[in-house]
Design a protein that fits this description.
Blueprint: H1 3-10, H2 19-53, H3 65-77, H4 80-112, H5 114-128, H6 136-143, H7 147-171, H8 175-183, H9 188-222, H10 231-240, H11 244-272
Length: about 280
């Protein structure tokens, strides 16, 4: 084994390589990875276009990318896409906020108080182990087929991961720091403000990120069930008219908006936890 390869395996710098050269190689490696992240989706889109245009797959099942683009312009021009996306985002926002507030409050309650943990956590764990989408028939029986069951499903999807992470973050507070605050005469509120909650911040933000992803997925499922508005309604309506191109447009919108929301949450997480890099 050569010295360069052994250096890669052990994480050490090969003999004779300067720190500046090492940093330059690392930057080149990062640029290469970024390039791959952009190239691989473009290759997939190109393959899609070639396969569809060449007739290797029926255009009714997989329309060419150019057809999907024309469908995108069509639904954007007649207002279907904008109106549907606005309705879907409003549903997701309302359901997420409700679920996040309830999940965070229960997480703090169960994390700080032993009897709160004993009374709340078993119930949450039972609900968590029930397949979320298996609750849909029950929600329809309870609340009908209007907006309420959709919001309840989204709130559950958001609240559960946030509760679990807030609860875990509080429970994993550094005991030495907590003991130090007791010695320094901190009140319970000061201990909570300066030690417990900052220590749980990273867990909480992971829960928020998971909650955003779960609630968006719940929205996608909820909008396929007896809805008359939203991106899901646009997809179902296109299915009834055998418009595969519009169905794909709706699915791509779901994917891109979900990716955008995850990116925003990650940037917020990085900004809030910037003190960890100092």
């Amino acid at each position: 084994m050569t010295s360069s390869s052994s250096g890669l395996l052990t994480g050490t710098r090969p003999a004779g390589e300067t720190p500046a050269a090492s940093r330059t190689a690392a930057r080149r490696g990062r640029r290469g990875l970024k390039l791959v992240r952009w190239v691989s989706p473009l290759v997939l889109l190109l393959a899609w276009q070639v396969v569809s245009s060449a007739g290797l797959v029926s255009s009714r099942k997989l329309p060419p990318l150019t057809t999907v683009w024309r469908a995108t312009l069509e639904v954007a021009g007649n207002g279907q896409l904008g109106d549907g996306l606005a309705v879907s985002l409003r549903r997701m926002f309302i359901g997420f906020v409700i679920g996040a507030l309830i999940g965070a409050a229960l997480g703090v309650f169960a994390g700080l108080l032993r009897w709160g943990d004993a009374s709340v956590d078993p119930v949450i764990q039972m609900i968590r182990n029930v397949p979320l989408f298996g609750l849909i028939p029950l929600l329809i029986l309870w609340f009908g087929i209007g907006e309420l069951p959709k919001l309840v499903l989204i709130a559950l999807a958001a609240g559960l991961p946030i509760y679990i992470n807030v609860h875990t973050g509080i429970r994993h507070a550094d005991p030495q720091l907590v003991e130090a605050t007791s010695v320094l005469g901190y009140s319970r509120w000061e201990r909570l403000r300066h030690v417990v909650l900052p220590g749980a911040a990273s867990y909480t933000l992971v829960g928020v990120r998971l909650g955003v992803a779960s609630s968006w997925l719940a929205l996608v499922v909820a909008e396929t069930i007896a809805t008359d508005s939203g991106v899901g309604y646009m997809i179902n309506n296109a299915r009834d008219f055998l418009r595969t191109d519009i169905v794909i447009v709706g699915l791509l919108v779901y994917a891109l908006v979900g990716l955008l929301m995850d990116t925003i949450v990650r940037l917020i997480e990085r900004w809030i936890l910037r003190w960890r890099a100092t």
